[in-house]
Structures are given as structure tokens and as C-alpha cells.
Design a protein that fits this description.
The complex is a heterodimer. Helix content of chain A is about 10%, strand content about 40%. Chain A has helices at about 5-20, 40-65, 230, and strands at about 90-95, 95-100, 100-105, 110-115, 115-120, 125-130, 135, 145-150, 155-160, 165-170, 175-185, 195-200, 205-210, 215, 225, 235-240, 245, 255, 265-270, 270-275, 285-290, 300, 300-305, 310-315, 320-325, 330, 335-340, 350-355, 360-365. In chain A, strand 14 (about 215) and strand 15 (about 225) form a beta hairpin. Chain B is about 60% helix and about 0% strand. The chains are: A mainly beta, B mainly alpha. At the A-B interface, helix 1, strand 10 and strand 11 of A face helix 1, helix 2, helix 6 and helix 8 of B.
């Protein structure tokens, strides 16, 4: 059929809309109509006073130093106390998944969260995601773990079927609407070249990589793929974070990735076995290189530093406890939460640590 | 939808706005959901949300854009059957839904297929070809990037062309 789709669309939509019989305006008078603000000038005055006070505080701070410094990034002020309430971020404790303080039915291995969304691995080897406590199953065969973007807006995954592997994903904000798919080489597990979803960024770009192959996929813009073995040879993307992509293993660094597949080094990172960046991209916590190998199931301490490496601290689990391996997660830009286990591995609790207070406490959770 | 003529004009009361804005709100809702019952429900939900926040919305430069975004988000976040989740953009449409016989809709070439598009694609199509919005305005309404709008529109048009190609 030979028609101008865009012209026809416009004409048909306008025809339908103009022919509609419009129902009566609903009566919303049962509720009191919000009253206009009667004190805008008072609010404005209060705002002015607040600005003056803040300006004075900052001016005092600058005068106290030897020379003017750039305005620091806003870092939460330490409160002096550590809340013992249940974590705000989803967590798994003793095979139970908790979201918004409520247990999600089932037995679970792990959960990863971004923004309001989460992505969890259930003990029956299925993957689920959600916003809030209702879980949605990812109805596809996944031979490698999916990934969630740091802001939680997107999930990317490699779906396997009889025809091969497809790199695909979906938008968690629109209730799981998919963003298409491209065929990828899944690699060979026996050769150690399996391709994993390494990263999905906050703007929906996807990196899938193995030791011998790698692609950047741009599903939300051009839909094209870029061969990373040509544009970033020898570079292995580890994950997406709020501060950028973590790249490399022997000399890791934070990087920005262009749509052309080029990685630009932003800053060096410490050698690590695990690295997690806080949601606002201000702090990172690492398990230093060599600390998580072998049969290690818990670790006594973690190293934290600001992403710009101007501050650092050590987070030590409460006495008699150890951080359960690879289960820690940032709750916000100050607090890290993690399951902790006793030395005999028999008892589990949740701890909350503050990087500003350099202290961890057990919390009431689970 | 009505827009504020100038930023210095006094904010309309909710009643003033609703009286004039209701028909266009309803038409937009109908084009998204494709039936009167859901359209009325969607437009009414949006109006109710606006009513509760009118103190803020009424002072916006363009209240209509605010409501359009509210309606779009309500539409996209409303619960859909599980089968619609994780749908892939295959550029192939499912069979078009049956429409009521006898009306002008029967003679439409694309409208039946528009109703079978995934919700986000349909929203982009309606915003672009009915509301006549540009990419940035659509991105604002959907709360996404211009690139996402462009990609979504591309997939929608490709799917529509494929659908009518099958019929010929």
C-alpha cells in the first residue's frame, strides 16, 4: 500500500479526535479546592534569609582557609548517630529478599538496585525485577546475569534460545517495555570467552563483552552496535556506575564512553576485587585486590574513598562480624549497608556503615 | 489544550482551566487508549491529580504541558497485562484490534495499527502527529531523552509501514 504514513497518521488522528463525543466534565467538587498561597511574600522573605545565612556560612568557611577553594560538592553532614532502622535499599538476608522493608516471597541469592528499581536472582535460577515490592519475572532464558543501570531505569540482558544469543533489554520506568534486540556472539564458556552484559548506562547504552569480543549497543538512539575490539582494544568494561564506567583490572580507571565506542580515562581507581560507587557518584567502596579470592565468604573491613580520592576511610564490620562477600550496597552517598555474618557463619544480620563517621552498627532488619 | 498566554497573566482557577482544557485532555486520552471508558478514566484521573496540586500547576508557564505529562505518565504507568511486559521492538505488529463497526474509524488505514503499538510508541505517535509536538517537547512529556523519542518514533513508523505492507 503506497501511502505517506506520516501524513496519513496526522490526518487520521485529527479526524478521530474531532469526531469524538466529549463526555461532561467530571464533578470534582467533593474535595476542597486547594486554596491559593496567602503568604508568598513571607515565603520569599524566608528564602532570602536562608540564602543570606548560607552565603554567610560559606563565606566564613572560605575565610577560615588559607586560600579560596572551589566550591566543594555537597556532601551530607555527619549526624553523629547511625540509624538502626531497616535499610532503604533492597537487600537479601538469609536467602530472603526485602524491598521497602517488606519480604518478597521466595528464596533469593542476590539483589542489585538502582534508583527505585531492583534486579534480583532467585534460588530457582530465575531473574526478577521490580519497583516496589511486586516482583516481575524476566521471562527469558538467561545464561549470564542481566545488568541494571545505576539509576535503575534500564535492565539489559543476553537472551539465549535455539537460534543463538540476543542482546536486549527493557525500560523499568515504563513497566518493562522492551527496547529491541541485536544478535551477539555469546562466546565459548569452555574457552573462557563467554560474553557478559558488563554495563547498561543511565542513558540506556549497553556494553556486552567477553575476553575476545565486545560490543557497545545504542538501542535508544541509532540502534546500532559498535565493535569494542576495534574502538577500545584490550579494554574490559567492568560495570556502569554513577561516576562513569569502571574499566580494566590491573590498572583500573573510571571512563567515559562515547557513542563511537571510545573510552576516555577520567581518573585512576585502586586495584580491587570489588568496587561499588555511591548513587550520587561521590564515594566508592572497595574490597582491595586479593581479598576475596578462594573460599572467602566474609571480610572484616572495606576501604572507602571519595571518587576524587581526596578523602578515605576504612569501614570495619561490628566486632565479631564480617561483611558477607559481594553483598554490600550503598544506601545513599553516606551510608553503606551489608549483610554481616558471625565468624562461624551461623548467624546473619544487617549492618549500616557511615563513611563520614567511619563506623558501622547492626541494624534492626529482617 | 489551552496554554497561558503570557507569564504575567493571572493564574487561571482550576475551574477555569478544566472547563476549557477538558475536551482536549479527553481527546488526547482517547487517542492513547482507543476507547471511551478508559479515556474518560485516564483523563479524569489526570484532572483529579491536577486538582489536588493546582496551587502549583496553575502557576506553571504552560499548565497544559504539565497536564499532558501527567496524563502520559499515568497512561504509561498504568497496569498492563503481563504479556505486554518485556515486549521486544520487533517492528512487527500483532494483529490489529477489532474496532466498532459503522464509524469513520472503519475507514482508517493506520488507526487500527496505532492501537496495537506498544504504549510508549503510541504515545510518541500521538504527541507527534496529533499534538504536533517537537522532539524536545515529546521528550519532556515522556520524561526521556530526545534520542529515545527519535528511536521510538523510528520503530513505530517502521512497524506501521510493515503492518500496512502486509495488507496490500
Amino acid at each position: 500500500m503506497d501511502i505517506d504514513v506520516e501524513e496519513t497518521l496526522g490526518r487520521e488522528l485529527h479526524t478521530i479526535a474531532s469526531g469524538l463525543r466529549i463526555p461532561a466534565l467530571p464533578d470534582l467538587a467533593q474535595e476542597p479546592i486547594p486554596t491559593p498561597r496567602r503568604w508568598p511574600s513571607l515565603l520569599a522573605a524566608a528564602a532570602v534569609v536562608l540564602v543570606v545565612i548560607l552565603a554567610a556560612v560559606f563565606a566564613e568557611a572560605f575565610h577560615a582557609g588559607s586560600s579560596p577553594q572551589p566550591m566543594p560538592q555537597p556532601v551530607p553532614a555527619p549526624t553523629g548517630t547511625l540509624p538502626r532502622t531497616a535499610p532503604a535499599t533492597p537487600y537479601v538476608l538469609a536467602d530472603r529478599l526485602y524491598v521497602d522493608g517488606q519480604q518478597v516471597p521466595g528464596k533469593w541469592w542476590s539483589v542489585d538496585a538502582g534508583g527505585d528499581a531492583w534486579l534480583a536472582w532467585r534460588a530457582d535460577d530465575t531473574w526478577w525485577w521490580g519497583r516496589g515490592t511486586e516482583p516481575h519475572r524476566i521471562e527469558a532464558r538467561l545464561d549470564v546475569p542481566p545488568a541494571i543501570s545505576p539509576n535503575g531505569d534500564y535492565v539489559a540482558m543476553i537472551v539465549t534460545d535455539d537460534n543463538g544469543a540476543t542482546l536486549t533489554g527493557f525500560d523499568t520506568a515504563s513497566d518493562g517495555e522492551g527496547f529491541g534486540g541485536v544478535t551477539v556472539d555469546a562466546g565459548d564458556p569452555e574457552k573462557g570467552t563467554t560474553v557478559f552484559v558488563r554495563a547498561v548506562t543511565d542513558d540506556g547504552r549497553v556494553v556486552a563483552q567477553g575476553l575476545e569480543s565486545g560490543v557497545l549497543w545504542l538501542p535508544l538512539t541509532t540502534g546500532e552496535t559498535v565493535d569494542l575490539t576495534e574502538t577500545a582494544p584490550g579494554q574490559q568494561v567492568e560495570r556502569a556506575t554513577a561516576a562513569g564506567l569502571v574499566v580494566g583490572s590491573e590498572s583500573p580507571y573510571l571512563a567515559q564512553l562515547s557513542d563511537a565506542g571510545e573510552l576516555t580515562r577520567v581518573r585512576d581507581l585502586p586495584v580491587h576485587d570489588d568496587l561499588e560507587v555511591s548513587p550520587g557518584g561521590q564515594w566508592l567502596v572497595i574490597a582491595p585486590g586479593g581479598t576475596l579470592g578462594g573460599e572467602v565468604t566474609s571480610i572484616r573491613s572495606l576501604e572507602a574513598q571519595t571518587v576524587d580520592a581526596t578523602e578515605d576511610t576504612t569501614l570495619t564490620a561490628p566486632e565479631g562480624w564480617g561483611f558477607r562477600t559481594l553483598a554490600w550496597a550503598w544506601e545513599d552517598d553516606e551510608h553503606l549497608v551489608s549483610p554481616v555474618v558471625t565468624d562461624d557463619g551461623q548467624t546473619q544480620r544487617i549492618t549500616r556503615c557511615s563513611v563520614l563517621l567511619a563506623r558501622c552498627v547492626l541494624v534492626d532488619a529482617g | 489544550m489551552i496554554d497561558r498566554m503570557t507569564s504575567s497573566a493571572p493564574a487561571p482557577t482550576f475551574e477555569e482551566y478544566a472547563e476549557v482544557g477538558w475536551p482536549s485532555l479527553y481527546r488526547y486520552a482517547y487517542l492513547l487508549v482507543g476507547n471511551h471508558a478508559d479515556a474518560e478514566d485516564l483523563a479524569q484521573q489526570t484532572l483529579l491529580k491536577a486538582y489536588r496540586s493546582w496551587d502549583r500547576i496553575g502557576r506553571a508557564d504552560v499548565p497544559a504541558a504539565y497536564l499532558r505529562r501527567m496524563l502520559t505518565n499515568t497512561y504509561l504507568s498504568s497496569r498492563r497485562p503481563k504479556a505486554r511486559r518485556l515486549e521486544l521492538l520487533t517492528d512487527e505488529l500483532p494483529e490489529p484490534r477489532a474496532v466498532a463497526a459503522g464509524g469513520p474509524e472503519d475507514r482508517m488505514v493506520l488507526w487500527p495499527h496505532v492501537q496495537s503499538l506498544p504504549p510508549r510508541q503510541r504515545a510518541v505517535v500521538v504527541l507527534r502527529y496529533y499534538e504536533d509536538l517537537g522532539e524536545q517537547e515529546i521528550a519532556d512529556a515522556l520524561g526521556c531523552s530526545r534520542g529515545t523519542v527519535k528511536s521510538t518514533a523510528h520503530h513505530a513508523l517502521k512497524a506501521l509501514r510493515a503492518a500496512i505492507g502486509k495488507e496490500s
